[in-house]
Amino acid sequence: MIIGVPKEIKNNENRVALTPAGTAEFVKHNHTVYIQATAGIGSGFSDEEYVQAGAKILPTIEEVYAIAEMIIKVKEPIASEYSLIKKDQLLFTYFHFASYEPLLHAMIERGAVCLAYETVERDRALPLLVPMSEVAGRMSIQEGAKYLEKPMGGRGILLGGVPGVKPAEVIVLGGGIVGTQAAKMAAGLGAHVTIMDISLNRLRQLDDTMPANVQTEYSNEYNIRRAIKTADLVIGGVLIPGAKAPHLITRAMLPTMKPGAVIVDVAIDQGGCFETSKPTTHAEPTYVIDNVIHYCVANMPGAVPYTSTLALTNATLPYALQLANKGWKQACKDMPDLKLGLNIIDGQVVYQGVAEAFGLPLADVNSFLAATTETYA
Questions:
Q1: How far apart are CA 53 and CA 33, in angstroms?
Q2: What is the pTM of this model?
Q3: Which domains, from first to last, does the chain contain?
Q4: What is the rounded distance in angstroms from the CA atom of residue 329 to the CA atom of residue 315?
Q5: Tens digit of each residue's pLDDT (9 = 90 or more) over 104-144
Q6: CB-CB neighbours of 222 under 10 Å
Q7: Residue 47 CB-density burial (10 A; 0-12 exposed, 13-18 middle, 19+ buried)
Q8: What is the average per-residue pLDDT within 289-316?
Q9: How open is the CA angle 18-270-159, to the nearest 5 degrees?
Q10: What is the pLDDT of residue 39?
Q11: Catalytic residue check, 29
């Protein structure tokens, strides 16, 4: 198969979808890899390293899309890329369709095969979302602590306090990967942490494993309303796979929070779990509503690209190799977890959460997989 890796062009996105080590694996399996020039620079990988691994370098993004049968990316295509995508071309990347309708309709129009990292599911876990959730969860505390500083507009609070001065109050909404990592980081810095979730089993697990300065509480509107009144930092880490995140903090709740408090919405890729959330960039990461600082950067791990790229490609490469070796149809037949990553095929939505988000008809993914399996040179 011909693999194409374009340079990420989203604002301050420095990750790359394939490392030189991953390139060597594709080449070892007799695939051809084309890398856009300087695609890996932001993550610390030079063009020469890719050439040594067996890749071919193309100078423009247009050339990469034109020649590739499978495009491997990190983030969803942006508007300038839509016209470059070919019918039946396989795109393997994060899409988060439920949060951005124009992207959905663009991919339907292009007739591409869209296989989304974030909906690949195995044993009720999301293996291609986990590494970036780990990064984002840990970063949420790092960024939250920074914006609590007075020069950044915050309350002027040190997250862990000092002897004789109480630490910050941190509320973490969601006890999944993001929430767990955020709670660990906040606790490690000495903050007082409350982690909230709707699963009692998950709360029991967290209660058994978290340090003494982390408490668990059942998540409901009453408890959230009460908790945010004393919170200095709130982390939103709620996820419904492939669907929009629920709004757990409404606009009406914001005036009850302390002036200069910070909320970090890690769920912004899925629409955000605060009603007042809107996507921001690393260039302009925050805005203020009702004296509450909102940090809603949609590609948080892009700020630490070396760590993020290695973590992501460790997870995606085995799946990408299966897609290249077998073709997407046979690979999805053989791997039910990969099959769940299919969101759009030939202009039709095949993932339930995406169809429900926009009231679109849901096509049967099995009807596409039953067609003649594709072959590649």
A1: 10
A2: 0.86
A3: 2-111+305-369 (3.40.50.720), 130-303 (3.40.50.720)
A4: 20
A5: 999 999 999 999 999 999 988 899 999 999 999 999 999 99
A6: 8
A7: middle
A8: 95
A9: 90
A10: 97
A11: no
